């Protein structure tokens, strides 16, 4: 809501020196969000005067037609002689009154004006357009003033060019502040001054001979006031002052009748509609739409109506979408002059509608038809149901005053019974909400200031004013008191929560994981969870792969990425590619976050959340239904890396990142979780079929790691040999974190034995190791694979694995025989399980 | 060695004569002094303190002396040997220091050679900033609550006093969802705030007190630009207990900004409207950079707060009793307060980040300087 300060001052006698900023500060403290204070004509300096065009000479020979004019500016130029002015605009004629800026003046910009040589003449100033005066940017033509203004009159004052406009973002609860009246009320309270309420008008009582109105849907329309004015001069224009106020409030002057309805809406907050009475057929009827009905709205769009749409109709059918937008069929006609007879055709009889519609009905129609309007904005937030009579009266008065109309005596006022809603609160309720003592007297006074009727002692019965439909609950009243007393005055105290237990296990693990991976050289990224089909294709996922069944966005940011991620890798790989594209060569990234999976959910319940009531706690069954409607959202951790794991340097060549680094990153995560990870050979997209490790905890598959499939690398334009790891944190820790028993440290010496085994190349090292461990028995302290050898010496399709085994007993020094026996047992187990042969 | 002989006169034993002992001592000291390196010193040591050195041999003679003479000779020889050993140790220390200086100089390297062999990693500042906030509140006794990112509309909207027709609901730029076959879902959205977690916390608690913070990612269908992102991080707080007031809300906010930015920081509340709180407020904090001193002081303009003195932080208020009712909490017995704000914005002004895109794009050059903690 844009409120010109000059307009505001009409209803509140603000101190003379108060600037827009001062007023804004007060309003902000009272809870209005004043976004800006616009200074109109701040740098404007006269002389700027009314001129009368005396003569026009058309100059030719230039790129565009130019006029050389003589303009009477009265005595404003000091000489009384006509002013010579060169002008490029053409929308004026000899005899027209225009706005002239004289040399020495400054126009908004600032643009200083001086006499200058142009098009072969001296131009002593300019004839001004609305844009040049900062009045608006809707048209380029110069302003032609009504004929009654006298040349030489100061136009700065006439056009109210210097003003301040408060731009207020009105929150959903303060519909009444979508009017100068409402803002003036807040300003009056903020300054402790009386309000001259513009809605306090003499209104004749309703009678039986007003415009014919039938309200068939009282739930949708609980108030309908209609008045009529006849004998309107179709050519009458809106007065300048009205146009200026409408402009300053951010709307456009259109035509007299429309301007008047808009002006009254801005003034009182009551949206009005003006119908050309001659185009209404029968009674104005308020009802819901019938299936298949159509309406062409004022914006020229033909709309198919929904049976919930609230309509204004006549015998011909719908003539308006109630509270949202009028229909084209009953629009106020533009005045058209018949060139032969000189007769002007246009609207001469007007019916004014000032109705009150149910906010929900209006909001739904706006959403359904995507048709926001100034009227709807107000109805959605709540219009004062008592303002209709005054608003209709104000519109009638203005039509009479400026359009030469005659008000008809008929007054239609259909009102549904309106229950009085009052709220009972303890007088100290605001004190208890605020944590500050205001006292009963202050509470009552503040509530009365906002317009409430208050009765009672320790318990107050508060009846909010008609313009405050938002005041429904005790806390609404508390807020009124607290905001007017000042949020800034609230004390600062600390509550005492019960002693806490800190982070959960899962939260602590997430931190450890992040620290461990970052410590291992990975950089955390937080990617958008949006993916597209293309990346799943690039991954080479089978048609039935569960990662292909995605949750989709109905309104994605990008049509290329309409789905939610089922794996973290697409986002990580895109981030990797972005870094490489920006010149990075060695990149290692990680992410922890949620994936969105449909597999493992109940298809009946999924995406089928019940609409539960809010006047009670949902039952546990209902909460379970809500949860069952959601996809699975497992927490995952993933890494990607490319380039060198260790860089080239003066120490020598770097070390390229490999599948093994990806596996190691999984071990890093597992170590952070205190979980033992085992690795099995696997084939799983998007990994390289020969370089893909399945990650297990016990027999539970928790993720994969390795080098990516070369086809995936190519399709996604990744660096060669890009590697990746992803695992499901919840599966990883499903058995709980490892509880560590304090180890017993033996002080006896260690016995070291080496073992070299030759196995088929296809035998996984992990199996050999497992066999050795199991065979070696409890004396084995540690085992380490220190060499893998392939070559002719051991034959094709074979590999030699060399292990260092360390044995130690808790209670004695091992003899050489004991150590050897344990070693032999280990080898024997490896031989029997893996077909190994001992070497050397 | 012969048995003690009463007639044996030490003065008569040549090797134990005081002059002789002095001579031997001086010879040894001279030899040590003359030793040019540790090897020469070792030779001199063997020659002058070894088993076959004159002083050692002289020492052996002492045992045969009569008691009085034995004592005197023992003292003499002992003093001489002590002086010799001391001189040896001193000379050795000198020679070792010389050797060390020489050898270690030869072993010197250029330690300014760059060594960045182990790659450096970092955690994202949104993560660490959120954790830092978490630590502030867990230390006060709050728990950190989390919930799903795809959320039921009832939890994201309805329970928060934002019914289907509430005007605020359409302003939240919600991402709506379809299933894999393209059918619209019923009542399921990408959460627009973490308030659903507040609701879940209240539903899960059998009875207040409830003190939780709810950090997490939220989604609004905004385009990415320098100041907006469709996916961003929020932290919300919820406290429900007997007798909680707006003053408690204010104190909690004050404590938070002091914890984050240091002593002297404070917050300011301005009335606003949110459906889920009543009364509601916008919260500002004093500009941590200029502490408000840039206001009306054109000589000291502040970029952080545009010389406003205050920085807008987020929204807050007393939990609307209707929300409590939807969660089965008696609003006549309990009251609550809540607040929420975006972590990206906090990161941007706390660390002078100019472009939102740098935060979301995952460029390692952005994240690395933030290290492990923030
Ligand atoms: Zn500042």
UniProtKB/TrEMBL annotation, chain A:
All residue ranges annotated as the B5 domain in the record: 418-492
Cofactors: Mg(2+)
Transmembrane segments: none
Key word Signal present: no
Entry-linked Gene3D superfamilies: 3.30.56.10, Bira Bifunctional Protein, Domain 2 (3.30.930.10), Ferrodoxin-fold anticodon-binding domain (3.30.70.380), Nucleic acid-binding proteins (2.40.50.140), Phenylalanyl-trna Synthetase, Chain B, domain 3 (3.50.40.10)
Listed InterPro entries: aa-tRNA-synth_II/BPL/LPL, B3/B4_tRNA-bd, DNA-bd_dom_put_sf, Fdx_antiC-bd, Fdx_antiC-bd_sf, NA-bd_OB-fold, Phe-tRNA-ligase_IIc_bsu, Phe-tRNA-ligase_IIc_bsu_bact
Keywords per UniProt: Aminoacyl-tRNA synthetase, ATP-binding, Cytoplasm, Ligase, Magnesium, Metal-binding, Nucleotide-binding, Protein biosynthesis, RNA-binding, tRNA-binding
Compartment list: Cytoplasm
Pfam families: B3_4 (PF03483), B5 (PF03484), FDX-ACB (PF03147), tRNA_bind (PF01588), tRNA_synthFbeta (PF17759)
Gene Ontology MF terms: phenylalanine-tRNA ligase activity
Residues of the TRNA-binding domain: 42-156
Domain FDX-ACB, chain residue ranges per copy: 746-839
Entry EC no(s): 6.1.1.20
Catalytic activity: tRNA(Phe) + L-phenylalanine + ATP = L-phenylalanyl-tRNA(Phe) + AMP + diphosphate + H(+)
Entry's cofactor comment: Binds 2 magnesium ions per tetramer.
Binding site for Mg(2+): 470, 476, 479-480
Self-association state and partner proteins as the record states: Tetramer of two alpha and two beta subunits.
Family: Belongs to the phenylalanyl-tRNA synthetase beta subunit family. Type 1 subfamily.
Record-given protein name: Phenylalanine--tRNA ligase beta subunit
Gene that this sequence comes from: pheT
UniProtKB/TrEMBL annotation, chain B:
Residues holding Mg(2+): 278
Main enzyme class: ligase
Needed co-factor(s): Mg(2+)
Pfam families in alphabetical order: Phe_tRNA-synt_N, tRNA-synt_2d
Domain Aminoacyl-transfer RNA synthetases class-II family profile: 135-369
Cofactor annotation comment: Binds 2 magnesium ions per tetramer.
An example molecular function term from Gene Ontology annotations: phenylalanine-tRNA ligase activity
Listed EC numbers: 6.1.1.20
SUPFAM superfamilies: Class II aaRS and biotin synthetases, tRNA-binding arm
Annotated compartments: Cytoplasm
Primary localization: cytoplasm
Catalytic reaction(s) noted: tRNA(Phe) + L-phenylalanine + ATP = L-phenylalanyl-tRNA(Phe) + AMP + diphosphate + H(+)
Keywords noted in UniProt: Aminoacyl-tRNA synthetase, ATP-binding, Cytoplasm, Ligase, Magnesium, Metal-binding, Nucleotide-binding, Protein biosynthesis
PANTHER family named among the record's database cross-references: PHENYLALANINE--TRNA LIGASE, MITOCHONDRIAL, PHENYLALANYL-TRNA SYNTHETASE
Complex formation: Tetramer of two alpha and two beta subunits.
Family (UniProt): Belongs to the class-II aminoacyl-tRNA synthetase family. Phe-tRNA synthetase alpha subunit type 1 subfamily.
Protein's recorded name: Phenylalanine--tRNA ligase alpha subunit
Source organism: Streptacidiphilus cavernicola
């Amino acid at each position: 809501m844009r409120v010109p300060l000059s307009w505001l001052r009409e209803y509140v006698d603000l101190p003379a020196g108060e600037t827009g900023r001062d007023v804004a500060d007060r309003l902000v403290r009272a809870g209005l969000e004043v976004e800006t204070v616009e200074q109109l004509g701040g740098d404007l300096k006269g002389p700027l005067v009314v001129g009368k065009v005396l003569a026009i000479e058309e100059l030719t020979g230039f790129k565009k037609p130019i006029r050389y004019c003589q303009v009477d500016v009265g005595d404003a130029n000091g000489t009384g002689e006509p002013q010579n002015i060169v002008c490029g605009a053409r929308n004026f004629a000899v005899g027209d009154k225009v706005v002239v800026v004289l040399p020495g003046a400054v126009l908004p910009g600032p643009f200083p004006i001086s006499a200058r040589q142009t098009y072969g003449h001296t131009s002593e100033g300019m004839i001004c357009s609305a844009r040049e005066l900062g009045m608006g940017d809707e048209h380029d033509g110069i302003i032609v003033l009504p004929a009654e203004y006298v040349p030489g009159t100061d136009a700065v004052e006439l056009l109210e060019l210097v003003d301040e406009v408060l731009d207020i973002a009105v929150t959903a609860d303060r519909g009444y502040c979508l009017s100068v009246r409402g803002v003036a009320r807040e300003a009056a309270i903020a300054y402790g001054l009386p309000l001259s309420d513009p809605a306090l008008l003499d209104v004749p009582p309703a009678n039986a001979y007003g415009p014919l109105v039938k309200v068939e849907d009282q739930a949708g329309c609980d108030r309908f006031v209609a008045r009529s004015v006849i004998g309107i001069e179709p050519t009458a224009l809106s007065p300048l002052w009205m146009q200026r106020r409408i402009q300053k409030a951010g709307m456009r002057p259109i035509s007299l009748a429309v301007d008047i309805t808009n002006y009254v809406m801005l003034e009182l907050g009551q949206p009005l509609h003006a119908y050309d009475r001659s185009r209404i057929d029968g009674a104005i009827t308020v009802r819901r739409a019938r299936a298949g009905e159509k309406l062409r709205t004022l914006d020229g769009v033909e709309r198919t109506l929904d049976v919930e749409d609230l309509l204004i109709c006549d015998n011909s059918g719908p003539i308006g979408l109630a509270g949202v937008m009028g229909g084209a069929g009953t629009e106020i006609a533009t005045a058209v002059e018949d060139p032969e007879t000189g007769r002007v055709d246009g609207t001469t009889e007007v019916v004014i509608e000032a109705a009150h519609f149910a906010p929900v009905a209006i909001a739904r129609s706006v959403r359904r038809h995507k048709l926001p309007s100034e009227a709807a904005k107000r109805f959605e937030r709540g219009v004062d149901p008592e303002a209709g009579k005054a608003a209709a009266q104000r519109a009638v008065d203005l039509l009479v005053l400026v359009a030469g109309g005659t008000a008809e005596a008929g007054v239609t006022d259909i009102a549904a019974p309106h229950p009085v809603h009052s709220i009972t609160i303890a007088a100290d309720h605001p004190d208890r909400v605020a944590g500050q003592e205001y006292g009963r007297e202050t509470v009552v006074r503040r509530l009365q200031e906002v317009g409430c009727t208050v009765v009672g002692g320790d318990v107050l019965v508060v009846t909010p004013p008609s313009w405050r439909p938002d005041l429904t609950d005790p806390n609404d009243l508390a807020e009124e008191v607290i905001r007017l007393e000042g949020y800034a005055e609230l004390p600062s105290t600390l509550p005492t929560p019960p002693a806490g237990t800190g982070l959960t296990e899962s939260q602590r693990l997430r931190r450890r994981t992040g620290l461990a991976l970052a410590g291992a050289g990975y950089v955390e990224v937080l990617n958008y969870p949006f993916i597209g089909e293309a990346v799943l294709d690039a991954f080479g996922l089978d048609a039935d792969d569960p990662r292909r069944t995605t949750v989709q966005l109905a309104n994605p940011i990008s049509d290329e990425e309409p789905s939610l991620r089922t794996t973290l890798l697409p986002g990580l790989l895109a981030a990797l590619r972005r870094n490489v594209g920006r010149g990075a060569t060695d990149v290692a990234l990680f992410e922890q976050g949620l994936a969105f999976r449909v597999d493992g959910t109940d298809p009946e319940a999924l995406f089928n959340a019940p609409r539960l009531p809010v006047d009670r706690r949902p039952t546990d069954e209902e909460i379970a239904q809500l949860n069952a409607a959601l996809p699975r959202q497992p927490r995952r951790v993933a890494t990607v890396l490319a380039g060198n794991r260790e860089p080239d340097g003066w120490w020598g060549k770097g070390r390229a990142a490999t599948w093994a680094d990806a596996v190691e990153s999984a071990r890093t995560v597992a170590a952070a979780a205190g979980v033992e990870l085992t690795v099995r050979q696997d084939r799983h997209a998007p990994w390289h079929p020969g370089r893909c490790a399945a990650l297990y905890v016990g027999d539970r598959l928790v993720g994969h790691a390795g080098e990516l499939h070369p086809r995936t690398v190519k399709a996604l334009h990744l660096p060669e040999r890009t590697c990746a790891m992803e695992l499901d944190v919840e599966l990883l820790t499903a058995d709980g974190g490892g509880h560590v028993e304090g180890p017993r440290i033996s002080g006896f010496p260690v016995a070291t034995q080496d073992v070299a085994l030759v196995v088929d190349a296809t035998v996984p090292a992990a199996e050999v190791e497992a066999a050795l461990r199991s065979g070696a028995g409890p004396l084995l302290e540690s085992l380490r694979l220190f060499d893998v050898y392939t070559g002719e010496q051991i034959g094709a399709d074979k590999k030699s694995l060399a292990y260092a085994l360390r044995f130690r007993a808790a209670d004695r020094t091992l003899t050489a025989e004991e150590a050897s026996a344990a070693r032999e047992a280990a080898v024997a187990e490896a031989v029997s399980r893996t077909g190994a042969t001992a070497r050397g | 060695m012969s048995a003690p002989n009463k007639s044996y006169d030490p003065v008569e034993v040549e090797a134990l004569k005081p002059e002789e002992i002095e001579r031997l001592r001086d010879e040894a000291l001279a030899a040590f002094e003359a030793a040019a390196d540790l090897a020469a010193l070792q030779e001199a040591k063997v020659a002058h303190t070894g088993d076959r050195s004159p002083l050692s041999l002289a020492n052996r003679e002492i045992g045969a002396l009569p008691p009085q003479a034995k004592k005197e000779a023992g003292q003499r020889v002992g003093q001489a040997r002590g002086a010799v050993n001391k001189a040896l140790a001193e000379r050795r220390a000198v020679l070792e220091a010389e050797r060390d200086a020489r050898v270690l100089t030869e072993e010197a390297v250029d330690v300014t050679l760059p060594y960045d062999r182990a790659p450096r990693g970092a955690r994202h500042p949104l993560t660490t900033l959120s954790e830092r906030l978490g630590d502030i509140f867990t230390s006060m006794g709050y728990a950190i609550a989390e919930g799903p990112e795809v959320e039921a509309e009832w939890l994201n909207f309805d329970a928060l006093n934002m019914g289907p027709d509430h005007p605020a609901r359409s302003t939240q730029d919600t991402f709506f969802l379809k299933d894999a076959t393209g059918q619209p879902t019923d009542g399921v959205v990408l959460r627009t705030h973490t308030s659903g977690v507040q609701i879940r916390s209240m539903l899960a608690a059998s009875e207040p007190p409830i003190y939780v913070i709810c950090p997490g990612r939220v989604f609004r269908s905004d385009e990415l630009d320098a100041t907006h992102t469709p996916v961003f991080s929020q932290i919300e707080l919820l406290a429900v207990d007997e007798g909680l007031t707006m003053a408690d809300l204010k104190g909690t906010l004050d404590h938070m900004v002091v914890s984050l930015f240091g002593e002297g920081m404070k917050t300011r509340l301005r009335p606003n409207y949110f459906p889920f709180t009543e009364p509601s407020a916008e919260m500002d904090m004093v500009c941590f950079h200029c502490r408000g001193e840039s206001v009306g002081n054109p000589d000291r303009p502040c970029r952080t707060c545009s010389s406003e003195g205050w920085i807008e932080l987020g929204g807050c208020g007393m939990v609307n009793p209707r929300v409590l009712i939807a969660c089965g909490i008696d609003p006549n017995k309990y009251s609550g307060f809540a607040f929420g704000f975006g972590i990206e914005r906090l990161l941007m002004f706390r660390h002078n980040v100019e472009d939102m895109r740098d935060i979301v794009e995952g460029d390692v050059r952005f994240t690395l300087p933030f290290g492990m903690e923030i």
